[in-house]
Amino acid sequence: MTVYDIEKTNFITILRSGAFDDSKPIGMLSDFKWNKLIELAHIHDVVNIFAQGLEHYYYDDNLNLSEGHLGKIRTLLQETPTHTIPELYDIDKVHLHSTALESKLREIVGQEQKDTERSFETLQLAAILFENVNHILSGRSFLRGIIDLGRYLRQDGNRIDFVKLERWLQQTKMTKMAQMQGNLLIEAFGFSAEELPFVARDDHRAKEVLDGAIRTNVTRDGQKWEFHQNKSGFIVGSPQQALRSIRHSLRYRRYARREAYSTIFRGILKGLSEIEE
Question: What's the first-to-final CA gap in the chain, in angstroms?
């Protein structure tokens, strides 16, 4: 097992412990490597979860964290605000880049909200799934979203109408994207297929997606589309950055083809609209 494999395994194991109270053995790392994991937790906005997980390993000989790094975690915890899932995921504020799919989503939400037998829990789960789609395709970190998905399923899964949810996913062409998210919960966080009724089959690429999500230099704002106007009035930009953004979205086209291409198109338009006169 490589050093990176141990780092990745420790990172996921500690998050799994903090999020789902499911502790597995961890490997020993140098102080420098532990510091990298702390920074990674900060990048992925999972500091609280990571710190809670570390508490379960306080007496573990392999947790050879220095007092300096423990103090760093305490500082990050004090600076990191906590939010509830309804505060973070609001179906009325979640939007798709595809005009046609966005119209269908708004139709679904509008009809459900008017229904006398509406299911708040199903709408809430849909909000998490669709918000994760935005993060995945735009290059923002989605690890926190996957954890929140798992937490919500275990908290309110018995009140979710999965038949209705699957119909919504089919209508918005997001079935494969939702299944991929569910497979990440199975691969990384110990979920069973029975806990994820919307996941019809195993995705052998889930491990690859998870590995990429951790390795990639993600940002909270997503991939950048850099364009500007030169002195001659021509529009120029960073070909390398644009290609990275395009490649990132295309990586997930097998899961949501229309939305992936729409994300690229919207990104280019957004980059052009931000050109300074």
Answer: 53
Report CA dihedral (145, 150, 153, 155) to the nearest 10 degrees.
-100
C-alpha of 150 from chain center: 11
Q: CB within 8 A of 42, min separation 6: which ones? A: 76
Rounded to whole angstroms, what are the CA distances from 220 to 110, 140, 256? 29, 5, 21
Reading the chain (277 residues) residue by residue, the pLDDT tens digits are 455 688 999 999 999 999 999 988 999 888 888 888 988 998 898 988 998 888 888 888 888 877 777 777 777 777 777 778 888 899 999 999 999 999 999 999 999 999 988 999 999 999 999 999 999 998 888 999 999 999 999 999 999 999 999 999 999 999 999 999 999 999 999 999 999 999 987 788 888 888 888 875 544 444 454 444 443 333 344 556 667 777 878 889 899 999 998 888 877 766 555 554 4
Q: Are 174 and 133 in contact, with CB atoms under 8 Å apart?
A: yes
Confirm if 143 and 214 have CB atoms less than 8 A apart: yes
CA angle 123, 124, 129 (to 5 degrees): 95
